[in-house]
Records
---
Amino acid sequence: MSTLLLILPPTLPGPHTSFGYLVSPDGHQIERQGNAAPALLPTPGRAGETVAVVPVQALSWQRVTLPQNLPLGNTPRLRAVLEGLLEDRLLDDPAQLHFALQPGARAGEAAWVAVCDRAWLQQHLQLLEAAGRPVARVVPEFAPLADSTTYCALGTPDAAWLLATNFGAGQGVALLPLAAAPALLPPTAADEEPPPVLADPAVAALAEQTLGRTVALATAGERALRAARGTWDLAQLDLASRGRARLLRKSGSLAGALLRAPQWRAARWAAGL
């Protein structure tokens, strides 16, 4: 199944907004990529999927313990519970924020909550839907559910960062200026292999110089593909309702096409009889 991945810009959409995109035929390889306005973006094909990728700078991560017997469906009650659990930790008004629970979260247990600006995410998804590119899933570029800690150097030489996932207790995703990055890397003995570090090509040389070790290249497209293969979907709560409505409209259109198609005339007669 082909996949169209769209990297959401960090600012609110405007008349000149464009999206970085890539098309993958199998979710692992990049067929083509580029940058285009919403109406000029490619389509994933009839059996394909459109996935939006939220950049790491747009998300914050909070660890909460969910109440016992809490229904975890996309309900107003879950939204209200998350607001109550997080209101003392957040700098912004919770009503202005979007929340998403980690995959497989269970009532009575600790879980990660992804937090981002609600209007920013909604407006980008509405813009894409209006352009005929409705999004099926919304995934974080990096998330704290991997089996091991991930290190990745990002940005530009003038503004370089080192990211770490699963870094320390209660720290889902840490992001520090690359100059301060050695504090994120654990000390290793002389006979130990240091943890691998990924790096965007733009900052790979600077990362090797700062960290004193070899890095492996990982482009934005490769990171997006890896994110799309994960289990996260940030389209929850009110965004999940919009997704279901899109799916129902698509299903209705398909059903209407089948009912009108000439090749299904015999089936329609049979059903009528």
Note: The CA atoms of residues 91 and 97 lie 10 Å apart.
---
Amino acid sequence: MTIDTADIFGSDQIGIHVACVGQYVFHPAELTAPIKEKIDNVLGLESIELSIGGSNLIGALLSGNSHGMAVADIATESDIDILTSYGDVIVMEGGVNTAGNLLLANESGVVASPSIPEEGLEIISEVMKVDVLATTIAGQDVVGSLGVTNDQGILLHPDVTPEEVMQIEQVMKVPPMVGTACFGSPYVGAGICASNNGALAGSETTGPEMNRIEDALGLI
């Protein structure tokens, strides 16, 4: 199955808890066996158990592609040691450190929150080896929560502006679509975790929403 639904720790915010980075999916260690099996079967990536600074909100704190990743500065040295075995790592510091909420990355480009300083954008571009665009989505700066992407497509908050869509398509090099998850939530990045193989959405996600997610991410 290319798309399915699940809850993690009683929450349907799958994208906050799970991060797909390149050929790996990082998730909390305390997941039940059925949820782990669903993550493996749907996303089709090598599964890595992880916490970041003791937090299970992996998807909110980590973002990247096959070249490298950015992680929040609450990550411990041992967390970073684990991550560096899967790619180059940049630690995001200060008030703009929730990498998963502030970055939307695939193998072609990165959409970044305008709250990230210019020098940070340059380092992200260098580590992930792609162009980086700083823009809002629907006028908001938590772009990682407002979009979900793979190398085949991107699903965005329904209120994204035409200007934002044009810029995002240029840097990500995939066709954007708009949609919702989890029974009407526009925060599709928080509600969905996606790879090139499949997508896992929160359990409240409706059939029409799942169809839209499949279309947007090229999973049909």
Note: The radius of gyration is 15 Å.
---
Amino acid sequence: AIFLYESSNDADKIIFWARFPLILLTILLGFIIFSWTKKRFGENTALLALILYAFSPTVLAHGRYVTTDLGAAFGFFIGLLAFLKFLEKPVWKNVLLLGVALGTTMLLKFSLVLLLPVFLIVILARAKEFFKLIGKLFIAGLLGIIIIWGVYYFFNYNYPQTKQLADAESTLASYPNKALAGLDLWLIKNSATRHLGQYFLGFLMVSQRAGGGNTGYFLGEVSASGWWYYFPILYLFKETLVLHILTLLALILGFGKILKSKNSGAVVRVRSWIHGHLPEFCSLVFIVVYWASSLASPLNIGIRHVLPTFPFINILVSKQITEWLKSKNLKVKSPAVAILVALMVAGTLKSFPNFLSYYNKLAGGTNNGYKIAVDSNYDWGQDLKRLKDWMDKNLPAGRQVAVDYFGGGNLKYYL
């Protein structure tokens, strides 16, 4: 704050250029979603998936802020794509690609560790391949660890080992799992592994932070222990109604296909579906694992925390809808879907520039969103500059106002 607002700097210019790489990353993720989906499922599916991504109020809100949420979404997506490429063709080139993807994504956000249980579940579901692939997976994981070690070596280079150990001991003094804390201190004590120890320290700090919760407001209650239904309700209220309609239709169509399968027995039908639909299965496993982790966490401060699942939801929904459109009654179905998508686009554009504060009609609209949840769901202090512009246009010179502000901006700088 001192650097931005109290050092004779142009704060707006610094903030703009800090945000610019995240904006580019948001665009790049949209491009990858379209390109990969087009290659897998066709141009129509890719276009619909891109529209659902590009006109999500949550994506538009957090794709322009200096936070890790969009970076995490990018990391999970490229990590799963590399894993799929490896499963379908486990040649050494793809082993190396998976290792690089693992190392890179793990550096984007500590929550990317959730890729590991997703990989394990998918591999176990294809039990016949487990022992064939375990060696190559180990090598990919080792390469990922080397990449993490290399990056942290660079940042740790001038960090005296004794000081690093003392800082870690102080930080982990209250960590509840003494075994994990001990493992991290052991890594730091060893000169060869102390850089990995610094990464692991960050992971432990984040896990402790998430496990400790955060005092928040939700549906008239204030609590630090969280609500298990927090994310489902916010997802229902903060994404567009059109997406929910299309998702419901896609679920009905998807389950209908499985039930109509010619294979006898539910287990056989599911196995048959997994074998023929590996990308969809990986996406579903990731969504389930990530949402399960989020529901279990008491850290309830924003729908942005489940943002990494959005690209996969968009692709799965788009695939079912475009396949449905290929069947009969095309003259009725296509205009209906086109109207729904147009309504979604228009509704999102209408909410500009208040994407962060967006709530759909089920919640009573954006103006009533504060009754449901605040913090990064509604007011993150993002409108301080806009408040100044409004005051300049609407208030007489010298008029004093009282401001109750929640955010990282500086009242004196702008007002």
Note: The beta strands are 216-218, 221-223.
